Amino acid sequence: MSMAITRSSGANAPSGPHVLPDPGADSTPAREGRIDPLRFLFSYNAHNLTKVVTEVGRATGAYWIDAVQRIAKPGDAARRSLLWLSTMADRREPTWHLPNEVALSTPFAVLRDFTEAGHRDDDIVPTLVLPPQAGHSSTVIDYSPQQSQLAMIRAAGLTRLYALDWRPATTATKTVTITDYLEVIDRSIRRMGGKANLVGDCQGGWLATIYAALHPERVNTLTLAGAPIDFHAGDSVIAASTRLMAGTMGMAPYKALVTAGGGNMPGSAVLSNFISIQPQSEISRQLQLLENIDDPTHVERYRVFEDWFKYTQDIPGAFYLWLVENLFWKNRLIAGTLTVGGRKVDMSAIDCPLLLLAGSTDHITPAPQLFAAAEKVSTPPADITYRTASAGHLGLFMGRDALRHDWPVLMEAVYSHSIPEDRRKAGGTGKASRRRNSVRSVENPRDTPRVPAP
Asked: Which CATH superfamily is domain 24-33+92-275+313-440 in?
């Protein structure tokens, strides 16, 4: 069940039925010391170990029951095992599914134009999506023909649609840092017409927030999904581990990783970290594959996810070290002490409509880390939307449930802010049709077990 609210902060908040973030989950940096990182990590890992043991026990029982049922076919177990191993090893590079044109190319990022030919002259503010950047391909926003955030956004009426595609880091781009990323966003928006709706997923979200604070005149609406803004809020294993490690050893461990990667942060190291955060998901995914190895629908769903999840790319070393120190460790964005290129990043400069989408089971970015953004911006309370999807972290960007039930609602609101004033006053056109089209752009889940994802 998804939840959505629009509310204000402070003593003058309007009365009425609201669904608020968990009051026990701190969303401000003032109480960041309330959790002992070491104690939290010990408890978290102990809980995960229990889940791992439970999943292995479940799968083992299912395997032996299946083996007994297949006892008349002794060669079948060997066939299934070989097929299982080959499927796990068969990885392919993820690709974009929607047709697009390259509108701008740099050594570290590409601006892709997903606008269909018949809509290039539409009188609507263009939309720019900033994908996550955590060692994986940007194609997560166009995950599959059946599950595409971009297709959903376009079907919601935001027909002039662009996305940045983060390229894998190389020796030549290892010194790329935050100012370079902000510059390519600015160049992209200027090329798109000078003003855009920004949609930021995960790390693309804090990047969009920094840009919006520095260039508020260029941002029409700001949508953030699973984006850490207050990096120390809520119960986050990433925040706890960073504070523990950096608090005791400074940046030395992170610099060592970058040095070992030839000046870049290896995507394989980022992947290993994600797997270690929820090892039960990795184990469950592989064991479910064995159980369903003869189900082509399940195998295909598994393959599509693994192709994206396991095909990693490196992150520019200078950029990675900057974000660890300034955001993950010192939490300077929400504290208001962040500077970029000699300019202070003041979130109160953001006054455009703000839409926030969190996941109810997101262990990477707990909802308080995202919802804290609303307390720092100058956006009128009536133009701030909070929504909590029944999803984990990745499910926010590519999960069928979030794409069918949560994103259409948010993008319909963005659409209403993106059309000319006369059409807006008239109530827009085709509201119900846009909602139906955006929902239909994502296929219904097929009758097969879900593939566990972090």
From this structure: Alpha/Beta hydrolase fold, catalytic domain (3.40.50.1820)
